[in-house]
Amino acid sequence: MGAKRALGRWGWRLLRQEWREQLLILGLITVSIAMASVLATAIFHAEQPPSTFTGDASYRISVFGDETETLNDKLARAQVAFPRAEVTRSIIASRDGAGQDFLIEAPPSASALGAEPIRMIEGRRPQSEGEIAVSTSLAVKLRIPIGSTPILNGQSLTVVGLMEDPSAINREFAIVHPAHFLGAFPSARTSDFSGSDHAFLPDPQFATLLVSASPSEVNSYLENSDRPGFADYSNVEGLTFADSARRVAVLAVFLLATIVMVEIALLCSAGFVVLGQRRIRQSGLLSAVGATPRHLRQAMRLNGLVLGFVGGSLGVGLGFGLSLAGRPLFERLLTQRIQTWSVPWIILLPPVWLASTTGLLAAWLPARGVSRIPIVDALASRQPIGRSTARWGLVGGLAFIGGAATLSVAIGSNATMLAVVGLVAAIAGLLLLTPALTKAAGRLAPRLPLAPRIALRDLARHPNRTAAALAALVVALGIPVGVILTSTSSDANLDNAGPNLPDNWALIMPTITMHGGHGLADLGDHTGELEAIQAVLPLAVLTEIQLAKIPEALGSSARMPDLFSTVTATHCQSDGDGFGCRAGPRDTAWVATPNLMIALGLEPDLASKPVLLLSSRDEAVNIGFLQNGDELPMTPDVADLSPYRAVPNYFVPEASMVDQGYEPVLAGWLLTNPSTITAEQSKQLFAAVSGGSSSDFTQVIGQSGIARDESLLAVEVQQPDQNDDDIRRNVLIVGVLVSLTIIAAMVSLLRVDSARDDRALAAIGAPSGTRRKIVASTTAFLGLGGSLLALPGGYLALVAITSDRAGGYPYVFPAAQLAILLIGAPLLATLVAAILVRRQPASLAANIR
Amino acid sequence: MSILDLQGLSKTFADGDNTIHALRDIDLRVAAGELVAVMGPSGSGKSTLLTIAGGLEAPTSGQVLVTGRDLAELNPDERAGIRRRTIGYVFQDLNLINALTAAENVSLPLELDGMKAKPARTEACTMLERVGLADKVHRFPDDLSGGERQRVAIARALIGDHRLILADEPTGALDSVNGEDIMRLIRRACDDGAAGVIVTHDAQLAAWADRILFLRDERAIDHAVSSSSTDLLLEAASGSGTSGGQGL
User: Fold this and answer.
1) Which helix (H) or strand (E) element contains residue B51?
2) Considering only Cβ atoms within 10 Å of each terminal Cβ, which end of chain B, N or C, has fewer?
3) What is the bridge-based pairing of β-strands B61-66 and B69-70?
4) Where are the domains of chain A?
5) Distance from B228 to chain A by nearest Cα, in Å?
6) Phi, psi dihedral angles at A314 (to 5 degrees)
7) Nearest CB neighbour to B108, from listed A461, A764, A843
8) How far apart are CA B53 and CA A839, in angstroms?
9) Which positions in chain B touch A762 (Cβ < 8 Å)?
10) Confidence grade of residue A555 (pLDDT, cut at 50, 70, 90)
11) Residue A117 — very low, low, confident or very high, per pLDDT cuts 50/70/90?
């Protein structure tokens, strides 16, 4: 006990003596834990359990009326089945003249279950008939501020309040008082529902039940003993099991934090190696007076543990503060409200534990190294020179080769897990090779000028601490390199798909989906918009786009006469068991009219081809909505069609459409301009279809080139490349900053015990810039070494990530970005080092005796 | 002509509210070919005198002239130039650069002065051979014994055209035989025209000097000129009967 007390006292003195180095390690741990805590909090909030907003409810049941039981009957039965239930009636609504649907709901005024479905922002809740409150996002979209009187679903309503759904603050919806819901929106589906045409038609009115009930009670309600064997369409969502998602999120945070802490452990380990070397003489003295190697190990490990614990605690505190300060940002990003004290208490302690472990592990090997130095060498301050690099180099080489081979096998067999194993093994091998590579690089030193020679020798003579620093740098550079390579490759893959439109075309289409929707002709006159468009581009030609309406399909419903179906095609992928669709989006087929074919630059003869469907792909498809929702598998005739992504892959020849008994329905216009449509003209086009306004209310999705508001029409022009430039730019910036920080930290640590050398050099007459040159050389060697190792690491990551998509992701070399990261960052660090480092030690005589 | 001329040298250090006088009004002139030993008890200011003479720190008052140039009038780069071209310094703690081999440490002043690495190293090897380390030229300081390191430090001080040799306890880590060898080297350098100042506690080594400066209570209390006394000291020390400078 006495020995421990003495060693503890020694450790504490050293802690005070070496406060700069200790502070650096402490700072690294603190900042990384703070960042991990902020991230954990963000993910925690992103996975808020439903109970945050639904109170005591255990289930959310969406109830629809069907052919055997009306919605009212179902709700009446629910009130009996569930003593504790909240009913919110809803109806799909739209503002007259606008194509965008939204929900009008009637939530209860007071929640029996403690739920908070609505949060008022301004004004008040609707209380009387004819009043409505709208969500802020809907108010912006439909331009209906408080006091306005929009006509919604044929009803004139006065907006009395602005509110939001705290669980989805961007949700566009409106609420009315429950007592007036049925009066305003009588059920559309109670009497005229008839038999066979229900399959694809959503009920415009439904209700959401929040119930506090057991699973058996819910099952009993859904099964409804009066209707045995009938499949109920109610959608049931359990609200008590969602915590599993949060557990997964927490696990993900831990994994991420662990990766970060591995990085920090590598950095700190280099720091402890340096500290160990500074303590050699004192360690020798302690050993000489009877301290055991165990004592020495314990002192340094305790140092690591204390730094980890303190850093972890400070980091958690800092992260907590940042999380509180960043709550508005989180809310905007997560599109949901976060309660002020909704803090992930459960993940506050583990980061402290993680940081303590990191500190301990970082000190583990350096402590062992210090304790193994022969006492005489330690007393003579003779630093241990790494001599075991060959063994670890061999292990690293084998791991690298084995990992690369595994990766190669994984690519051949599309085995993702195997690819991950190969990647990890290869990168670990690369890192284990680092000491041997460092030592090998040291052989170049004699050929270099004095300053780089001293720098390289210093790095090479202590391969373990250099390797730890390089490993940290490789991880810091390798991750952004991997991300840049992968996203560039992904973009290169996307580029093969071609642009959406040529730069002189525009598509003028409705904002609603045409199949299963309304035709333009049904939704009013667009002469005004077309004239406005022609005014913007007087030389442009507008060609009608038509769809093939199927009279026998959904539109035959007497209940929904406005709705109809058009010919669509679903691209099929063979399921390996004969013909059948497994996946693929549903594409609307345009009618191939001679005019449209000419406008698209295609053969006008295609319009008269006697085939049901033309496609540019030689692939099987399912044609949808032919007969009451049936789908017809077929192989369309292959034709050389438009290469542009916004133009469908499928066309129904006009002649064939007539033969099939389908009817043409106007779906929009293809605008072809003799010259490129400029950005300014695009804006004017957006404004033209938005009723001449381009105010804040006009929702211009700028980057996608689509204008969309309450108007019926949207304009699509050539879109800028949908690529990951932003992601790469951000990753590049973060990568450069992180690597600069790491280089700075590492150089500070590695050069800290060189102060004596600096003074000695100055004392024997070294020019004043020598010290600067040495530090700059150390920085350059470290940075470039990290870059050289990070590049293969990044490519290995690209290989691993794309292993299951062979051929889809081309191999790329984004020279500019890689140069910025792998050459620019080290050079910048070198430059900064050269500028910041003092030319000459402050005191020459100090310690020069 | 005097190589080193210290005039009215004083040095004080602040210790809180107190002022500590390390040196007080010291005068010392060392001519070419002359070796001066500085002796005195611990804390008498011997090492401080040497660091001021070597341009490592400035005196509080007084003048330091090296080859007639007042160090106070030189900028740091010019002082560095004096240190690498004119002064050979043997530090008490040796101050070898651990990242450089023995040969590279010795060739350091030449390389710093612009000489190409290869000829500088050739000269360094020759110098190491003179101090008996011909087989250790590629060793790093950590691989050398204390005595070998000391000889590397001496070699570094003697290499080139250093006209002023300053040595702070240059034989501190050596046995008497090796210590004498080192003193012979320094003596020979002085006989070849350099001026030398050595700080030592060892009267036997001081006997190699032409003059002995005793420091006590911050002052040079005895400026002894030793000719016969040195011979007597040397005879007593080595029994050889030879005076300083008759060695290597």
Assistant:
1) helix B46-53
2) N
3) antiparallel
4) 1-49+250-384, 54-241, 450-497+723-849, 505-717
5) 32
6) -65, -40
7) A764
8) 23
9) 80
10) very low
11) confident
Residues of A in contact with B199 (CB under 8 A): none
Task: Indicate the domain borders of chain B.
Answer: 1-86+162-176+194-248, 92-161
**Comparing C-alpha atoms, which of B182, B196, B202 is closest to residue B39?**
B202
Instruction: Report strand pairing: A663-672 vs A541-550.
Output: antiparallel
Place of tokens 């193994």: A372
Question: How would you write A460-483 as a 3-class SS string?
Answer: HHCHHHHHHHHHHHHHHHHHHHHH
Helices and strands: H and E segment counts in chain B: 8, 10
Beta bridge mates, A708: A699
Measured CA to CA, the distance from residue B150 to residue B93 in angstroms comes to: 9
Nearest partner of A373 among A260, A276, A266, judged by Cα: A276
Sign of CA dihedral A394, A399, A400, A406: positive
> Distance (Å, rounded) from C-alpha A760 to C-alpha B112?
13
Q: Do B112 and A767 touch (CB under 8 A)?
A: yes
CATH numeric code, B1-86+162-176+194-248: 3.40.50.300
Q: Contact A763/B56, CB-based, under 8 Å?
A: yes
Contact B37, B28 (CB under 8 A): no
Residue A477 in tokens: 């550079």
- Phi/psi at A587 (5° precision): -100, 135
Task: Say what the pLDDT of residue A234 is.
Answer: 64
Q: Can you tell me the mean pLDDT for A490-510?
A: 77
Q: Which two tokens stand for residue A176?
A: 């009315």
A55-104 residue pLDDT tens: 778 888 888 776 667 778 888 888 888 888 888 888 877 665 555 578 88
User: What is the spatial distance between Cα A639 and Cα A753, in angstroms, rounded to a whole number?
Assistant: 74
Residue A189 is given by DSSP the state S
- For every residue of A714-728, DSSP letters joined together read EEEEPPPP---HHHH
- Quick one: pLDDT at residue B218? 66
Q: Determine the angle formed by the axes of helices A770-801 and A389-413, rounding to 10 degrees.
A: 30
* pLDDT recorded at residue B226: 53
- How far is it, in rounded angstroms, from Cα A469 to Cα A269? 8
Distance (Å, rounded) from C-alpha B31 to C-alpha B37?
13
C-alpha torsion angle, residues A800, A806, A810, A811 (rounded to 10): 40
| Closest C-alpha to A429, from A455, A461, A393 | A393
CB pairs under 8 A between A and B: 93
Q: Is A849 on the interface with B (CB under 8 A)?
A: yes
Rounded Cα gap, residues A88 and B16, in angstroms: 80
CA A802 to chain centre: 18
State the nearest Cα–Cα gap between B34 and chain A, in angstroms: 22
Strands (E) in A537-618, as ranges, are: 541-550, 565-566, 568-571, 586-588, 590-592, 614-615
**Cα dist from A544 to A441, A641, A664, A686, whole Å:** 70, 17, 11, 19
Q: Going by DSSP bridges, is the β-strand pair A632-634/A663-672 parallel, antiparallel, or unpaired?
A: unpaired
Helix, strand, or coil here: A174?
strand
Q: How many CB atoms lie within 10 A of CB A559?
A: 15
B248 vs A181 pLDDT, higher one = A181
**A-chain residues near B81 (CB < 8 A):** 765
Identify the CA nearest to A715 among candidates A675, A670, A648, A678: A670
Half-sphere exposure in the Cβ direction for A277 (13 Å, CA): 24
Encode A455-466: b = buried (16+ Cβ within 10 Å), e = exposed: bbbbbbbbbbbb
Question: What's the rounded Cα separation, in Å, for the pair B240 and B206?
Answer: 16
- Parallel/antiparallel/unpaired status of strands A713-717 and A505-510: antiparallel
How confident is the model over A767-804, as pLDDT tens digits?
A: 878 888 888 999 999 888 888 888 887 887 777 666 55
CB spacing of B56 vs A760 below 8 angstroms: no
